[in-house]
Amino acid sequence: MFPALPSLRTTGARRAPRTSPGALTGALVAGTALTLTTGCGLFAPGQNGDVPDDINVASPLMQEGRPLPDAYTCVGSEPDEDGERETYSPPLSWSGLPEETESLAVVVDDPEAAEVFWVLFDLDPQSGELRQNTVPAAARQGLNSTGGAAYHPPCPEEDDPHGYRFTVYALSAPLDLPEGAELSSTLEAIADRAIARGSLVTGTE
């Protein structure tokens, strides 16, 4: 049983978007930021030392190594009576945080494409979970690769399979950054404060 969550704000179901011309530019910007703070993960050797993978990350609606459900991609949910599809941010849960954890951050990315879909930070480490399509009231969202401060659903392509990584970072202190903070700033701040991490990685068929 997880502790009670603080007040939540709903991110709001959105009509399923399609890939826009600006998405590629956003991915390139994210790639640059990831290279500065990451390498192949979110942390390069020597930046805040070696970050242990001690956090267990799970989801009631996603499975490790299995395809990302349509509701969390640009494909969207099952059509409603008007034929519209909607997209949502997925639910996550975590355990195994270090005792000295003062704050949490969540980063959703495609490490192969160096594209970041969601940056959520200043989460209460006592919460234990993130509900579908909600953001805790005290948490903030940084910009993603497309320049939006929200969950931007990935667009899987059948002929170009990718894995999508949902990583929870335990931090030694809150980021102290505003809503809509630049992607490079949030990634660098997470890298500076990270003391542990854990990931759930969805796969492709």
Written overview of the protein:
The protein is globular and about 45 Å long. The protein is of the alpha+beta class and 205 residues long. It has helices at 21-37, 183-193, and strands at 8-10, 14-15, 56-58, 86-87, 92-95, 103-110, 115-123, 129-130, 134-136, 140-142, 164-171, 194-202. Helices cover 14% and strands 27% of the residues. It contains 2 helices and 12 strands, in the order ββαβββββββββαβ. The chain starts with 7 loop residues before the first strand and ends with a strand. A 5-stranded antiparallel β-sheet has the order 10-7-6-11-12. A 3-stranded antiparallel β-sheet has the order 3-5-8, with no helix packed on it.
Concise overview:
This protein has 205 residues and is α+β, with helices and mostly antiparallel strands. Helices cover 14% and strands 27% of the residues. The strands form four sheets. The protein has a five-stranded antiparallel β-sheet with strand order 10-7-6-11-12.
Strand content: 25-35%
Q: Low-confidence spans: pLDDT under 50, at least 5 residues?
A: 1-10, 12-40, 43-48
- Largest sheet, spatial ordering of strands: 10-7-6-11-12
Question: What shape does the CA trace take?
Answer: globular
Overall helicity: 10-25%
